[in-house]
Design goal:
Layout (H helix, E strand, L loop, with lengths): L19 H18 L3 E2 L5 E3 H4 L5 H6 L1 E4 L6 E4 L4 H12 L5 E8 L15 E8 L4 H17 L6 E6 H11 L3 H13 L2 H9 L5 H9 L4 E2 L2 H9 L4 H20 L5 E4 L12 E7 L4 E8 L13 E7 H4 L12 E4 L8 H12 L3 E3 L10 E6 L2 E6 L2
Parallel strand pairs: 1-5, 7-9, 13-14, 13-15
Antiparallel strand pairs: 2-4, 3-4, 5-6, 6-12, 7-10, 8-9, 10-11, 11-12, 15-16
């Protein structure tokens, strides 16, 4: 490597410098304090795990994002976490194994072998919350409400919430009885809302005419609350899907009553996390739905592979993206520069510096010349005294 290239970082890997780093840390702390007030216990998942544990129940997408290395001690494959949800699910199922509902929260950096998009960081910092042991709508409403309240507490402007349910597409696919390859193709076209290509593909499938029409209608089922009513017409022959629509409407009604005026958008073809989520999915956007800052959903039964089958729902916040839209102010501390000590016996100066720091001053005791400051700690009349800067 050339000397001039030694400072370069890999594509998509960034460093955070002052004052942005302090802002990120304040955001992290604020979110964890909010989660704690809602009863969520803080956990710290490991950065690496055995690959088969790390990727349990997560699907192909996360597999492609995960850096894989060989453990020099065991010879087994390790994965560097690209997401923390499955880790917390393992903790709930195996390490904690609490009876009843359990709530956990976490914060930390994850690493992606491939970025989510061209502008995304490959080392995002995620803060999230997970709720285990409840499959009902109240749990979904709680976790969606926690996401919204957390973002509002950070001063996020123009929040828009999107709701969907990947279970709708799953149930339609079961009716189709098509190959896995065709399922993948349908998934891509529905997710991209590629109406022309989708129509061409559906025309070539051996499906009942009414089922073809339903699949073709799916990408258009997005928008305001009228989507639910249109969906009830489209899926009239599918009671299980109608129940999912009712659940979405109930969660949306709860959100509307708790957060007056907050726009809610529906997208029944939103299949984010299709290989992972099992029901409702949701996200929070800023700036006219251009910037997704938080996302989550229901992922029931992931714990079954760890020995404990129960409901699960949760979300996480990308605080690097959040930090682009808000700066949490910290109360201003006064800065003191301490003049050099009097030879080797620096005890009195040191005690005074400690007193000032305990009193919430910032005290700089070396390299003073270039530091902006409010006071100077000087040795006057046989003692160390605080004097205002001229």
């Amino acid at each position: 490597m050339k000397t001039r290239d030694r400072w370069l970082l890999p594509d998509g890997v960034d460093e955070v410098l002052p004052p942005q780093a302090q802002n990120l840390e304040r955001i992290r702390r604020r979110l964890l304090d909010i989660f704690a007030a809602w009863g969520y216990d803080y956990v710290i998942p490991p950065m690496v795990e055995f690959l088969e544990s790390l990727l349990t129940g997560t699907g192909r997408d996360l597999d492609l994002k995960t850096f894989k290395i060989t453990d020099q001690m065991s010879g087994r494959m390790l994965g560097i976490r690209a997401d923390m949800t499955s880790q917390v699910a393992r903790m709930d199922a195996h390490s904690q194994n609490k009876e009843g509902v359990a709530r956990f929260c976490y914060a930390g950096t994850v690493l992606h072998a491939k970025p989510d998009n061209m502008l995304a960081s490959r080392a995002p910092i995620r803060v999230g919350a997970e709720l285990f042991g409840d499959t009902g709508n109240p749990a979904d409403l709680e976790i969606v409400s926690l996401m919204i309240e957390s973002l509002q507490a950070l001063g996020m402007p123009g929040i828009l919430v999107e709701l969907g349910d990947v279970g709708i597409f799953r149930q339609l696919i079961r009716q189709c009885a098509i190959s896995e390859e065709n399922e993948d193709l349908l998934f891509d076209l529905v997710q991209k809302k590629a109406a022309v290509e989708l129509a061409d593909m559906v025309a070539g499938l051996d499906l009942a005419p009414d089922l073809k029409q339903i699949i073709l209608a799916l990408p258009s089922l997005c928008g305001n609350h009228g989507v639910i009513e249109r969906g009830r017409i489209v899926f009239a022959a599918y009671p299980d899907i109608l129940q999912r629509l009712d659940n979405l409407a109930e969660v949306a009604l709860g959100v509307a009553s708790r957060f007056e005026g907050l726009p809610v958008y529906y997208d029944l073809s939103e299949l984010r996390g299709y290989n992972y989520h099992t029901g409702i999915v949701f996200a929070a956007y800023l700036g006219g739905a251009r910037h997704r800052v938080a996302q989550g959903g229901r992922y029931d039964s992931i714990g079954r592979l760890f020995g404990r089958d129960r409901g699960a729902t949760g979300f996480d916040v990308d605080i690097k993206t959040v930090a682009r839209f808000t700066t949490l102010e910290q109360h201003t501390k006064l800065v003191v520069v301490a003049e050099p000590g009097q030879g080797a016996d620096d005890t009195l100066r040191w005690h005074k510096i400690r007193e000032l720091r305990a009193a919430d001053y910032i005290v700089i005791e070396s390299g003073q010349a270039t530091v902006p400051h409010d006071f100077v700690l000087k040795y006057l009349n046989g003692e160390w005294q605080l004097t205002e800067t001229n």
